[in-house]
Fold this sequence. Notes:
The protein is α+β, with helices and mostly antiparallel strands.
Amino acid sequence: xxxxxxxxxxxxxxxxxxxxxxxxxxxxxxxxxxxxxxxxxxxxxxxxxxxxxxxxxxxxxxxxxxxxxxxxxxxxxxxxxxxxxxxxxxxxxxxxxxxxxxxxxxxxxxxxxxxxxxxxxxxxxxxxxxxxxxxxxxxxxxxxxxxxxxxxxxxxxxxxxxxxxxxxxxxxxxxxxxxxxxxxxxxxxxxxxxxxxxxxxxxxxxxxxxxxxxxxxxxxxxxxxxxxxxxxxxxxxxxxxxxxxxxxxxxxxxxxxxxxxxxxxxxxxxxxxxxxxxxxxxxxxxxxxxxxxxxxxxxxxxxxxxxxxxxxxxxxxxxxxxxxxxxxxxxxxxxxxxxxxxxxxxxxxxxxxxxxxxxxxxxxxxxxxxxxxxxxxxxxxxxxxxxxxxxxxxxxxxxxxxxxxxxxxxxxxxxxxxxxxxxxxxxxxxxxxxxxxxxxxxxxxxxxxxxxxxxxxxxxxxxxxxxxxxxxx
Length: 473
């Protein structure tokens, strides 16, 4: 296949999609001053296919076709494939090249579960295979649109005062279906070529209209994307987030017609479970891979700040560094173990379900504790340090240089730059967003608990205890 260039990607999203930002309709996301940098950043990701130094990280030979494909759009066939995917995700996090690529989890999950969906309706398996190949062969970007706005969460979708609070099918013709509702927290929706719209959970038997899964393009009539950007800042004060993060969006489906060849589920409640299960498993494996970069940033920050402050040998500091190192190494072990003990279904190497869910839970449940350790090591100056303009003021700079140094451990410049990095990472807009998304992205902690309980073989453990204790049934 021919990999797209950055210019070809940019042209592909000049399609008349309706994107709203700051209350305005954006005419062209590739040229609007508020979105063009993000669009260009997404376009730059396509250089990874053409750079011989890093090409092998992201390009592989697809065993299905014998052709070169994006690694993120090839079904892993072995432990080695899973590990190579993990390395590519890690590299993408460190460099920014490929960060939108592994949103392909949505289509990997759908293709993996397609044979099961096909038992209910062969058209679903055909549609998934056709659309997967189209996206793979045309090097398209895809994202997941799963979370509904949910309204009154004590009520089921069909019990809501307004039936549109969960995305639902409101009409059907021989040619397709019409969708209405809103999906929330959709990463990069305004920058992708396709969105997989799927149920947020399994519905009840009397709610078939909410059990719909389909492929929706951002330029379809009735699709409106409400993007939310972090505001750009200066690089000195905000070394991590100065360019602004990738937009999270609300996607409003205002009576969107979806053709039959894009429909993967249409009213069969029992299929929502397998779809959600497949997506959760692939997303959580990817989450472990991309979160290890964040853990390394926390570890490096904590260790360096302890040295700058001259307290790296203190017992309580060593305890905090141990906690960070333990989780960092544990995450590495979970990634390797999930790949090494992968199961195989229909020729696909599937990350170990239990290990993947436990690894994701371990990180997400302990992340806030690690942030607390880094903040504790840094001290209160983390949120009171002078901004760049104050620090560089000619009347104040000499005083700050003298009084904010760490003696022979660090200069004021070194210390302030590190404090800015840590504040940005843990205690500002970017850091706050990371704390929320760590808990809720790729499924809540409760979801990982549920999947772990489902996968563990409690019955064989019970049988072992009965045998040892002499208990007869």
